[in-house]
Amino acid sequence: MMVSEITPEEQAELDKALYDALNPLALAIRSRETGLPADRMWEADPVEVALSVLAAWKVMDVEVRQLTARAAATAGSYGASYEQLGAVWGITRQGARKKWPNAVSRPAPVTAGKSALALFGGTAELSQSPSGGWCWTGMGADGASGTAAGGTLYATPEEAAAHAGAFLKEHALGTGDQS
Questions:
Q1: Residue 76's closest CA among 90, 91, 66, 86?
Q2: pLDDT, tens digit, for every residue of 25-57?
Q3: 3-class secondary-structure state, position 156
Q4: Cα-based distances in Å from 58 to 26, 63, 117
Q5: Burial class (CB in 10 A: 0-12, 13-18, 19+), 10
Q6: Which of the two ends of the chain, N or C, has the fewest CB atoms closer than 10 A to its terminal CB?
């Protein structure tokens, strides 16, 4: 995904929405600082009014940065890499890592593309295919064996482990219907 450009019409709508959000905040800041009612804000010294508006932009800037970090973390939690985050933001992978240091989790490396899982009295082996996807094979506590449905490959070892774990839970002993 590349940096998205917006149309002039979208830019005008964005500007209006930002000003509509900013004005009440600037009025509130100015009113608190001066004790004057909001409807008299513009009667003050122009420098003071402009500084109140700037202070409101600062508050919005801090909030936008927090929301941006949250969006980056959300993308990272779904598997986006720092390279992808950087591409969207128009910066390098290293720049994205510096900007959002905790957005992308780095799970412990899985040795040689294999990992074992033991849950509910059963076991499963996760393995990485040459294409990079992950699959699993398992043996439930009840003796049932299973694999990723239809040779399904999962994007991450965590996703494969979740499916294997569901299989192991379904085939645990003494947990209800085992039909």
A1: 86
A2: 888 888 888 888 877 877 778 898 888 889 999
A3: coil
A4: 10, 9, 49
A5: exposed
A6: C
Is the torsion defined by CA of 80, 83, 84, 89 positive or negative?
Answer: positive
Question: What does the alpha-carbon distance between residue 90 and residue 106 come to, in Å, rounded to a whole number?
Answer: 22
Copy the structure tokens of residue 146.
């299973």
Q: Which residues make beta-bridge pairs with 139? A: 123, 145
What amino acid occupies position 63?
A: E
pTM to 2 decimal places: 0.54
Name the E strands within the chain. Answer: 114-119, 122-128, 134-139, 145-147
Match 């994007």 to its residue by tokens.
Answer: 155
Give CA–CA dist 107/102, Å, rounded.
Answer: 12
Distance of CA 127 to the CA centre of its chain: 26
Sign of CA dihedral 155, 167, 116, 103: positive
pLDDT digits (tens, 9 = 90+) for 121-159: 899 999 888 878 889 999 998 998 888 887 788 888 888
Q: Please state the domain extents for the chain.
A: 8-99, 111-170
